[in-house]
Design brief:
The chain is α/β, with parallel strands linked by helices. It has 2 domains: 163 residues, Rossmann fold (3-Layer(aba) Sandwich), CATH 3.40.50.720; 157 residues, 2-Layer Sandwich (Dihydrodipicolinate Reductase, domain 2), CATH 3.30.360. It has 11 helices and 13 strands. Helix 1 crosses helix 11 and helix 4 packs parallel to helix 5. Bound molecules: NADP nicotinamide-adenine-dinucleotide phosphate. The site of NADP nicotinamide-adenine-dinucleotide phosphate has 27 residues, from helix 1 and helix 11.
Length: 327
């Protein structure tokens, strides 16, 4: 089966998607029967189009060189995107504070009969009900595995592996940048140097304050609450905090994490994204540096914890491609 995609965003994650699609092409075609063709690719400066598919190595080469226009593919007007022939819109662009760009883009995609795969959280966290309503009324799907906890198979795990259980609470380390900064500060690194190190690993939002002021983790908390517990929360509805201005001498900093905590044990949906000191024996406390993970509590059975000890653009890209293969 041939799937044509429009890939918007060629940064850390977008480039990793191109690299993995190029190197696993035969595996996806022969083992899974999926030929994924990128027919539109865009960064901030250019939107390129090739109806028969873009050569991904060539595009990567020119992106690394600094200008994809040199790849020679036809430049198109952004307004004409939905006049092109493709099946899935893939959003790997940076978050915006209100998420309106993403909301409008996804709704346009559904209305023109396209599915959406996204790694960008701000649209879903601010306009969940409108986006899901539009997808449902158009008979299209949006998959968003990469929006929460990067490459950790979070929504797939909840949907596929524990369908038989009633989930009552989820506690997760879902943002790597803020927790990376916390751990570095606990080791004696200054906030500014920790940010520099996080930037080198490709785990910071384009506007890093979204990470360090706690917005990114809060958005993920809202998406999880809505997706898993059927909520209709918006980003402003929950209590959240960040790591900017944190006292480096704060007691217990070594085991302090920024954690999403979502539950409906009392029948009411409660969600927050706050700093908490973990017991050293808590499995989430074993996550260091760029690790991510979550513990799921369920009715009448023991909790399950899923941990990934290193997450970054490559792992996130695998979650994006997995969504494409699922579609
Ligand atoms: N990095 C991670 O580990 C990670 C993990 C989970 C989720 N995410 C999410 O994935 C998305 C991408 O992250 P990233 O780290 O790859 O970000 P990034 O490195 O900042 O890349 C963003 C890309 O989007 C492009 N872009 C910006 N505005 C655009 C526009 N109007 N039209 C088309 N392209 C535009 C940029 O173009 P230029 O190249 O020309 O600047 C760049 O290529 C973000 O929403 C982020 O929250 C990232």
């Amino acid at each position: 089966m041939k799937v044509k995609i429009a890939l918007l965003g060629l940064g850390q994650v977008g480039k990793a998607v191109l690299g993995i699609l190029a190197s696993n092409r035969d595996h996806y075609a022969q083992k899974l029967g999926s030929n994924i063709e990128v027919v539109v690719a865009a960064d901030f400066h250019h939107m390129l189009h090739a109806p028969d598919g873009i050569d991904l190595q060539r595009l990567l080469y020119y992106k690394e060189k600094g200008d994809i226009w040199g790849s020679g593919y036809a430049e198109i007007d952004r307004e004409s995107l939905f006049d092109r022939d493709f099946d899935v819109l893939v959003d790997l662009m940076p978050a915006t504070s209100d998420g309106l760009r993403a909301r409008d883009l996804y709704i346009s995609a559904f209305k023109s009969s396209r599915h959406v795969v996204t790694a960008c959280k701000s649209g879903l966290a601010n306009s969940w009900a409108e986006i899901m309503g539009s997808a449902a009324s158009s008979g299209k799907r949006i998959l968003y595995e990469a929006t929460v906890a990067g490459g950790v198979p979070f929504f797939s795990f909840i949907r596929q592996c524990i369908r038989s259980s009633v989930v009552t609470r989820i506690v997760g380390q879902v943002n790597s940048a803020a927790n990376f900064v916390l751990l570095k500060m606990a080791e004696g690194t200054s906030f500014e140097h920790a940010i520099e190190d996080a930037g080198k690993l490709g785990i910071l939002e384009a506007n890093y304050h979204f990470d360090t002021l706690g917005y990114d983790s809060a958005w993920k908390t809202v998406i999880t609450a809505n997706s898993v517990f059927g909520g209709t929360l918006k980003a402003g509805d929950i209590r959240f905090e960040g790591v900017e201005g944190i006292d480096p001498d704060r007691p217990g900093l070594k085991n302090t994490r920024l954690l999403a905590d979502i539950g409906s044990e009392s029948g009411n949906l409660e969600a927050s994204s706050t700093l908490r000191e973990l017991e050293p024996s808590d499995p989430l406390a074993s996550l260091k540096g760029t690790g991510l993970g979550f513990t799921v509590y369920m009715k009448g059975r023991a909790p399950l914890t899923v941990l990934e000890f290193k997450d970054g653009p490559i792992e996130t890209a695998t979650a994006v491609i997995n969504d494409l293969l699922l579609l």
